[in-house]
Structures are given as structure tokens and as C-alpha cells.
Amino acid sequence: MPQTLSAPGLTTGRAPFVEEARNRGELYIRQAYELYSEANHESWRLLFARIRPRWEMYANDQFLRGIEALNLPPDRVPRLDEINARLRPLTGFQARAVSGYVPGFLFFDCLRRREFPTTITIRPADRTDYLPEPDVFHDVAGHVPMHTERAFADTLVRFGDCAHTAVELTSGIRDQGERNRRLTNIIKAMSRFFWFTVEFGLMRGGPRGICAYGSGLLSSYGELEHAIEAEETQRYPVRMEWLINQGAEIDRYQPLLFIVDSFDHLFDLVDRLERWMREGKLDNVAPGLPEVNPGDLQSFLDAAE
């Protein structure tokens, strides 16, 4: 019997169970709930208790209803199977445990199948304010409650459709350099759109006139308040040409955010994104972050095979 390196604890960056799965090339894994340590559950308790009052102040109403519908526990890391049992009847979505980075096309294709790739590790208690990579709190407390909203869930599925459209539109280009160039621009445009809506989007409504629906905001104690209250934050009604050309900020609070009118408005924007893709309007977007890494590009190229 080969010796295993696995040990209790699913702390981000220090989780042998996940590292072993990744080394074996396994993308989809089980949650391995028995490996969570008391320190892991304490991190969840701290994060949940601290941000809950800010959700009440700044989150959109559907997110708050989603927290209740999923019965997210405040005192322990949630079990994905329990969440999925409540989520599937509402929108057909489910959280699916992954070992880490999901290449771009595979991520969008998961959304098309109503699956959300979900990280199972949790940040350590001494890094609650910021973590550059996703963790189970960001994914489950930030993203998954939004998946209880039908129009929002359907919007994520349309994102998956857009990825397939990108493959369809570029697969016939014979010049490999030109194909890569156009596909890289499309992926960058899609990534920026996703960043400024699903991750960091604002919506009209709430006691302050705007509220948060983006999961990067809803899982960040500091940035959630900053997005709504800070005078230096620029907030503009959403415009497609800005969404696809605006560079993202990955290591500080977003200085520029976009406001949608409703979830139906967001769905219509994704429809327009696909139309612009077909019209060639995503073939030459502005340079800047996020960069398209080789794995993301290759995942789209592989999808055409």
C-alpha cells in the first residue's frame, strides 16, 4: 500500500489531500469533510460572524434570501452535499468540489452544465482580510447564495454558451497565430466582463440606492463596505465597451465598479456580449489585466478538437 501524505486539515496552501489530487491530475474531488480541523471551522466562524452585519447593510436581497434558503451554518464549514440538496430544486445548480485552478473553458463549461467549481480549502485565521486565491468561504459564502436566484443562475449558463461560441468562431481560422490572437482577446473580454459583474458587480436597490451582488465583494469584509461607501470609489452605470476594455485590479480594492439595473439586465448584457463576439467586437480589446495564461488559452483550443 503506497504511503499517503494526507493529514487532517484543509488550510489553503497547506492541504496535502488537495495537493496529492492535483499531482495525480484530478480536477474533480470529494470534499473530504473529515479532514477539516477545528482551526478550519474556527476560520469559517470568524469570517461568517464578522461579515454577516455587512451583508445586512450592503448585500442585495436575493443574496440574503439565498443565505437563508441554503441554511448556511455560521459555526462550521458547510457540507457541499447539504447545500446541493437545497440548491438543486431552486435553480438546478450544484457546487462541485475541485482541487484548484480550473482552466477557462472548463470553468465556463461547468457553468453551462449548472455546476459551480468550488474550492474546499479555507484560508488560515491570520489571513482573513485578503487571500489572492479563492477558498471555500469565497466560493460558498460569496458565490453560491447567488445561485438560488433563477435569473442570475441562467446568466451563468449563458456565460457557458459564450465560451462555446468563442470556440465555434475561431476554430476555422487556419493561421494559428491569428487564431490565438483573436481567441486571447475574446477570453480577456469574457474575463473582464465576469470580473466586473459576477465578481465585483453592483446593482440598483437597497437602502443606499446601490447594493452588492458580486461575490468578490460579498466575501470580503473590507471591500464590501468600501465598494458602497468610499468616496474615492468610482461607480458608473454599466457600459459594454467599458466592461470589456477596463483592466482589473487584482491586489487592491477595485477603484472602478459598474452598476446594473437588475438580474434580467445582467442576462441581457451577456446576450449582448455574445452578439459582440459574433460581430468581431471582442477581437481587439485594450491590453492590461487580467492576462490570459497559457492554460486558459489551451483549454479553448482543446475544446475545438
Describe it.
With 305 residues, the protein is α/β, with parallel strands linked by helices. The chain has a single domain, classed as Phenylalanine Hydroxylase, CATH 1.10.800.10. It has 13 helices and six strands. The chain has a four-stranded mixed beta sheet with strand order 4-3-6-5. Strand 5, helix 11 and strand 6 form a beta-alpha-beta unit. Helix 2 packs parallel to helix 10, helix 7 packs parallel to helix 12 and helix 8 packs across helix 13. It is globular and about 55 Å long.
Protein topology:
Layout: H1 16-23, H2 38-58, H3 61-70, H4 80-91, E1 94-98, H5 104-112, E2 115-119, H6 136-143, H7 150-170, H8 176-199, E3 202-204, E4 210-212, H9 215-218, H10 221-229, E5 234-237, H11 240-245, E6 256-260, H12 263-278, H13 294-303
Parallel strand pairs: 1-2, 3-6, 5-6
Antiparallel strand pairs: 3-4
Could you estimate the helical fraction of the residues in percent?
40-55%
Derived from helix and strand composition plus strand pairing, the structural class reads alpha/beta
Number of domains: 1
Q: What gap, in angstroms, lies between the N and C termini? A: 38 Å
Q: What is the mean predicted local confidence, pLDDT?
A: 94
Q: So what's the CATH class?
A: Mainly Alpha
CATH architecture: Orthogonal Bundle
- Which series of helices and strands comes N to C? HHHHEHEHHHEEHHEHEHH
CATH topology title: Phenylalanine Hydroxylase
